[in-house]
Design brief:
single chain; 313 residues; alpha+beta; nine-stranded antiparallel beta sheet; seven-stranded mixed beta sheet; elongated; binds guanosine-5'-diphosphate
């Protein structure tokens, strides 16, 4: 099996305030994904000014970080139970999760809620014990609490072997041992690279792309976000959308986007393993599959159970 060693797709999960935003900011900063003279907003993941300018309302926050020769896609997950369905769909696009836990507070309700879903999907977690700089931090105890939670939630043997990184996202430092001096963000990056599997490379197979999240923009209309699970896709290509009821619609891919830092960038082609956004069809919905006309092979329907959607009826 060939792998796309140039990509890692992960979701970041945490209880609110445990430091997700600060951590992603530091990873971006340290990796130099931004040019030196580029202003880095203090709360980048929460700031979608670029999207606002272009009239995009973004549902899923995707940050792409270039580290050495690898692009790490980090998908943010809402911690609240109201977004359970969205969390599940986000988790379907990734090969592993970064679980951030405050080294003082320990596991909290949202830690449990999102971790349960990640474990159910057989994802491999990397645990980041954050805020290790806090004077009252109790890292070893919290690692034990995390292990207990994994056991309680039914983690398999592989998931129980989770690697741990101790970090101060605030200071931009991390280490694989609680007793050692913290260094740069390299320990976190290296732990991700070594423990989160690279996506399978099956670019030569027929295209298969499932719309996992929807976005909308005044200029482009509906935008389908998802992961290319098989094959490759190009701008201008004529493809077929398989609707939930099994009917099909042919359309031309008008624009495609990848991600860099916190921005979306236009791309011409994407291959298996890439997480992309595409436009060209007004009628696109979550759960539908895009395939070549001569190879219709829909992926299983995703369930959507957001109470917010149900309330509109
Ligand atoms: P999020 O809700 O998970 O995105 O959390 P934030 O990144 O917004 O962080 C919540 C608060 O914790 C902010 O006030 C951060 O400055 C603070 N914080 C984040 N990381 C650290 C850390 O490593 N050490 C300390 N002492 N505070 C941190």
């Amino acid at each position: 099996m060939q792998l796309r060693e140039d990509i890692r797709n992960i979701a970041i999960i945490a209880h609110v305030d445990h430091g997700k935003t600060t951590l992603v900011d530091q990873l971006l900063r340290y990796s130099g994904t931004f040019r030196e003279n580029e202003h880095v907003d203090d709360r980048m993941m929460d700031s979608n000014d670029i999207e606002k300018e272009r009239g995009i309302t973004i549902l899923a926050k995707n940050t792409a970080i270039n580290y050495k020769d690898t692009r790490i896609n980090i998908l943010d997950t809402p911690g609240h139970a109201d977004f359970g369905g969205e969390v599940e769909r986000i988790l379907q696009m990734v090969d592993g999760v970064l679980l951030v836990v405050d080294a003082y507070e320990g596991c909290m309700p949202q830690t449990r809620f999102v971790l349960k879903k990640a474990l159910e999907q057989k994802l491999r977690p990397v645990v980041v014990l954050n805020k290790i700089d806090r004077p009252n931090a109790r890292p070893q105890q919290v690692v034990d609490e995390v292990l207990d939670l994994f056991i309680e939630l039914g983690a398999d043997d592989d998931q129980l072997e989770f690697p741990v990184v101790f970090a101060s996202a605030l200071n931009g430092t991390s280490s694989n041992s609680a007793d050692e001096q913290l260094e740069t963000m390299d320990p976190i990056f290296n732990t991700i690279m070594e423990n989160i599997p690279a996506p399978e490379d099956n670019s030569s197979d027929p295209l298969q792309f499932q719309v996992t999240l929807l976005d909308y923009n005044d200029y482009l209309g509906r935008i389908g976000i998802g992961r290319v699970s098989r094959g490759s896709i190009k701008v201008g290509q004529q493809v077929t959308l398989i609707k939930k009821d099994g009917t099909t619609k042919s359309f031309r891919v008008s624009k495609m986007f990848g991600f860099l830092g916190l921005k979306r960038i236009e791309i011409e082609q994407a291959n298996s393993g890439d997480i992309i956004a595409l436009s060209g069809l007004e009628d696109i919905n979550v759960g539908e599959t895009v395939c070549p006309a001569d190879h219709l092979d829909p992926l299983p329907i995703l369930h959507i159970d957001e109470p917010t959607l149900q309330m509109t009826f």
